[in-house]
Amino acid sequence: MSTAELTSKTERKAPATAPPRIERGFYPRAAVIAVVLLLVLILLPQILSLYYISAMTQVAVYAVVALGLGVLVGRVGLISLGQAAVLAIGAWVAARLLFATSLPYEVVLVASGVITMALGTIVGLPALRMRGLYLALITLMLAGAITVVLASLNFPNGGHGFSGYNGGLLHIPPIRRPSIATTDPAYFRYSVVVAVIMFLLVLIHVRTKPGRAWAAIRQSEPAALAAGINTTMYKLWAFALASFVTGVAGGVLAGAVRYLYSIDFQTQDSITLLAVVLMGGAYSIWGAIVAALFLQLLPAILNDVGISPDWLVILFGVGVLQVLTTAPTGIVDQMPKDIARLFRFIGGRGRRSAPAKESVQ
Amino acid sequence: MIQLALSLPSWSDEQPFLVTGLALGGVYALSGVGMIVLFRTTGVLNLSFGAVGAFGALIAWQLINQSGMNQWLAYLVCVLFGGFITLAYGMVFGPALANRDALVKTTATLGLTLILLGVMDLLWTSNGGASRSISLPTDNHGFIVGQIQVTTTDIIALAVGITITVVTTLFLRYSKLGTAMRAMANDREITATLGVPVRRVEASAWFGCGVVAGIAGILLADLVALDSTTLTFLVISSLAAALIARLSSIWITFVAAIVIGVVDAAITPITSLTNYRDMTPFVLAAAALLFLNRKRVLSLARQEF
Predict the structure, then answer these.
(1) DSSP conformation class of A352
(2) I want to staple B281 with a disulfide (CB 3.0 to 4.6 A). Which of A5, A159, B240, B266 is the partner?
């Protein structure tokens, strides 16, 4: 913006606080999303079998986790290799509260989110002083450490004491569900609603001041600092947000599976989580949903068909390599471009001149 | 609580664990040195180190137990496999990611890790409770020091760690290839303009790292367990040692690795802490990093994803 434009703009605009600009195409997009959501909420539980309903509930849970990781990786540029451990913490806190108290489920969800957020911030604060590579490695080691702690601490199963684990229990009570959503299909709807709320929370962040600060930090941290942005606070905020949504997702997970075992939270899961987030596209909100579909729906389908889910692990490994070498913005961004290129090729226009390569951000 | 803490095991209880600790520390040092040399030469922190070692160890197991191959030959195959698969990865993905941040290059090795983990699980499934094991013939030899049983394998593990540290230091300082690697760690482009065969030096670094991974895999499979997940994530201990050395000093890596191995093993007989002993690498590395970075004001996030 040239100085002339700048001064003329400030001269013309009368009110100091202009109403937020609604971009073109917002209402049609929002309408489409609302329709899809309604279909998912109403139709899916009717047509899917219970097996796939529980798989889709997991998709809802992990979409939120992927969203948190996407904020860290895509928006701020910090890699965390320990988000599965954060999810485990959220699930643990939720399970402990659900067994020990009779608080309403929503309160437990918020509580597990807040406690996980506190822990995430505590880990994040000193880690912000390290190079990005060191942060990634520290989170990897943290994931390993938490896996170990969980293996001996175990998940609460109705016992007493701090850990709430009673190794001698013969009949382990299932984790309770909210009173309005006790059946699997109802709980699926519940988890989708919670997921939507988390997505909206992140969306609000991204569209307002924190999002702009994150974009500035991602572009060039020295420039952001020079512009007066408190980079440490905003990076910490990203950690806090990612931990909060992951903690809430952990609470939803506890109610979904009803029996938590430490064997379900392995160090490897943090790595596959990062892999699918990179593949789905860390930068876009939709990428989180794609990532969760990869992580939870595909294995369910493969299991149903009888193919070992190990092939998926291999696919994720290949996906990471492919994404990092060729399409850093992930599938969600790359697919439309590939399809557009395909159409151009079919239309005959792409044959001679290569389309101008978009600069890979 | 205090009573528990005071009931520390006696010195004679601790001794056998210290032997194991030193042996493991030696292997962690071996792995750490391998990773650091590669990092300094190519800028890639090879997180697939453990997975490569695990894969090699499983191949060796397969050859010994299912094909009846001579075990030393099988171990040689394992070591060579480690070298070649790491070399293959380095030659394909090294150039592709050469201009990217160290974080991106390291994340890419996670891709290789996942591929190896998936293939290992497919080929050697871990269900059915079938436990596999590798035992080196040196397990049966040993001697008694005071009241402790020290097997030759323990000696070899520690000796290999020390040897590699010394040899690598001398190699980097006095040999032509080592000097070339140090130059490349400094600035790859200028090194290339000086006429150093950069691709060949890189290839040697990748191959060397892979060979070390294979050796570490066999030793860890013998000392700990032959399980793909366990071996893959044992790399975390070596990683901690490398981090404490700021990914640059070989001798600090060695010392840190020994300390991690010994502390981890020494905690084993302490009943109140024993379940948490595998947190040792994390706790030590986190503490060390916080201490080393205490004067640092900020770190820079990068727009790489």
Answers:
(1) T
(2) B240
A295 close to B (CB below 8 A)? no
**pLDDT > 60? residue A236:** yes
How close B144 gets to chain A, by Cα (Å)? Answer: 33
What angle, rounded to 10 degrees, do the helices at B152-174 and B250-267 form?
160
- CA A214 to CA A207: how far, in whole Å? 11
Q: Can you tell me the distance from the alpha carbon of A121 to that of A320, in angstroms, rounded to the nearest whole number?
A: 27
β partners of residue B148: B145
B 221-260: CB under 8 A from A? 229, 232-233, 236, 239-240, 243
Check if B169 contacts A (Cβ < 8 Å): no
Q: Are A65 and A246 in contact (CB under 8 A)?
A: yes
* A142 contact B CB<8A: yes
Tokens 């952990």 sit at which residue?
Answer: A250
Task: Encode pLDDT of B232-248 as tens digits.
Answer: 998 999 999 998 998 88
* Mutant choice from A71, A81, A308, A321 vs B, greatest count of B C-beta within 10 A: A321
pLDDT in tens, B124-151: 886 555 678 888 887 777 788 777 788 8
Three-state SS sequence of chain B = CHHHHHCCCCHHHHHHHHHHHHHHHHHHHHHHHHHHHHHHHHCCCCCCHHHHHHHHHHHHHHHHHCCCCCHHHHHHHHHHHHHHHHHHHHHHHHHHCCCCCHHHHHHHHHHHHHHHHHHHHHHCCCHHHCCECCCCHHHCCEEEECCEEEEHHHHHHHHHHHHHHHHHHHHHHHCHHHHHHHHHHHCHHHHHHCCCCHHHHHHHHHHHHHHHHHHHHHHHHHHCCECHHHHHHCHHHHHHHHHHCCCCCHHHHHHHHHHHHHHHHHHCCCCCCHHHHHHHHHHHHHHHHHHHCCCCCCCCCCCCC
Please give, rounded to a whole number of angstroms, the shortest distance from the CA of B139 to a CA of chain A: 28
**pLDDT value of residue A337:** 65
* A324–B100 C-beta distance less than 8 A: yes
Query: Which chain A residues are within 8 Å of B290, Cβ to Cβ?
Result: 126, 129
Q: Which residues pair with B132 in a beta bridge?
A: B226
Residues A279/A319, Cβ–Cβ less than 8 Å: yes
- Asked if A303 is an interface residue toward chain B (Cβ–Cβ < 8 A), one would say no
- For residue A10, pLDDT over 70 is answered with no
- Tokens for A252? 């939803």
What pTM was estimated for this model as a whole? 0.85
Q: In residues, how long is chain B?
A: 305
Total residues belonging to chain A: 361
A129 inside 8 A of chain B by CB = yes
Structure tokens at B181: 């690697």
Residues of chain A positioned with their CB less than 8 A from the CB of B118: 310-317
Q: Chain A, 336-355: which have a CB under 8 Å from a chain B CB?
A: none
CA angle A154, B259, B110 (to 5 degrees): 60
